[in-house]
Specification:
Layout lengths: L15 H10 L2 E7 L6 H11 L10 H5 L5 H12 L9 H13 L2 E8 L2 H6 L4 H17 L4 E7 L5 H18 L5 E6 L12 H9 L3 E6 L5 H9 L5 E4 L7 H9 L4 E3 L1 H7 L11 H6 L4 E3 L4 H4 L3 H12 L3 H13 L5 H18 L1
Parallel strand pairs: 1-2, 2-3, 3-4, 4-5, 5-6, 6-7, 7-8
Helix pairs in contact: 1-15, 5-7
The chain binds zinc ion.
Length: 360
């Protein structure tokens, strides 16, 4: 890594290979990523074969063709198909090993993972504990073995209405009352944003907060800035998933900055689903960063979008002019925005400093 060289503005002055090495050497966090979309095609093929779900899928590569998508609507439909392949508790162990391997490949030391129980519960084959126990125990074992620290956010879902979301929260609270675990951090609101406004879920979020759970919400991914404002003001969301449409509303960006509400930005996801951004170069992450918002970098759905976290870091460097200091700011923001306690954050900053010192 001696060939690292930066110009005075802090921009990278390196060959692409060295940029990749630099990014890989940094211990990172990821805080917006969905479990079911981090499972590999090999694992899905194994599950598909186990259940004979779709006999037309002859090998793992067929999953890529199946999941070709061009909109958020198609993406969510595909997502439901993937979720339908988890039909017994041991199936969730694929999530444990694949998310662990993904984190290791990308030098992610801490990861917050969305897990969405609604579709699995609706099939009726696995109960809530049957979903959560393999994940909670599996990720605890990964951490105990010195692997990445993987925590869970339960996506209560906005796709099936208030009652379903409230039911998911009650299942989670009941589960936590019976298990001694700190692996589950809180709830998120994911799924189709259009037609399912944040305000509908106000009481679910209030109840979750009263019990000490963290709360986050997808907003501004496919609906305008009013959705983000609702997530902040009505739900009390501590972080915003995506927040892309905030770029249309300077007053909202000021609000996000004043309250230091982090944005979980997923550029490739936004380009593929194509609602507000069609080209990577047009993604507002650079403008959010320049305005001083707390911007973090994430992938959303690595397998669906064929992108991993280090690809995103390399892309913002190459295509959006994020130099060395800006890349480091994104990494530091990922620690700042995480739901780690202060001691864990201090350790994460120290690990980052050690990695930088080792680079010389
Ligand atoms: Zn998401």
């Amino acid at each position: 890594m001696k060939s690292l060289d930066y110009n005075q503005s802090g921009a990278f002055h390196m060959a692409p290979r060295n940029v990749s090495d630099f990014i890989h050497s940094l211990p990172k966090t990821e805080i917006h990523i969905h479990a079911e979309a981090t499972v590999s095609f090999d694992s899905y093929f194994a599950l598909n074969s186990k259940y004979g779900a779709d006999p037309s899928l002859k090998n793992p590569a067929d999953f890529r063709k199946l999941l070709k998508m061009d909109s958020l609507e198609t993406m969510i439909k595909n997502f439901f198909y993937l979720q339908s392949l988890f039909r017994s508790p041991e199936d969730f162990l694929y999530i444990v090993s694949d998310v662990r391997d993904y984190a290791l490949r990308n030098t992610i030391s801490y990861l917050e993972l969305f897990v969405a129980p609604s579709m699995v519960l609706r099939r009726g084959e696995v109960d809530f504990a049957g979903i959560m126990d393999p994940l909670v125990e599996g990720f605890a074992a990964v951490a105990a073995a010195g692997g990445p620290d993987i925590r869970i956010l339960v996506d209560v879902s906005r796709a099936f209405g208030f009652d379903n979301a409230a039911h998911n929260l009650s299942l989670l609270l009941d589960y936590l009352s019976k298990r001694s675990t700190d692996r589950v951090l809180g709830i998120g609101l994911g799924g189709q944003e259009a037609g399912n406004p944040c305000r509908v879920y106000k009481d679910v979020f209030r109840a979750a907060k009263q019990t000490g759970l963290h709360v986050v919400a997808h907003a501004g991914e496919e609906v305008g800035p009013e959705s983000i404002r609702e997530a902040v003001l009505e739900l009390g969301a501590e972080r915003i998933g995506h927040g892309t449409s905030a770029i249309q509303d300077p007053a909202l960006m000021d609000l996000l900055k004043e309250r230091s509400i982090p944005l979980e930005i997923c550029p490739t996801s936004n380009v593929v689903t194509g609602k507000y951004v069609r080209r990577y170069e047009d993604h507002p992450i650079r403008q959010f960063y320049d305005r001083g918002l707390v911007v973090t970098l994430n992938t959303d759905d690595p397998v669906l979008f064929d992108v991993e976290l280090e690809d995103e870091y390399a892309s913002v460097e190459r295509r959006l002019g994020f130099g060395r200091e800006a890349v480091l700011d994104l990494v530091r923001n990922g620690i700042r925005a995480a739901f780690m306690d202060d001691a864990a954050k201090a350790r994460a900053y120290e690990a980052l400093d050690r990695a930088l010192a080792a680079l010389g």
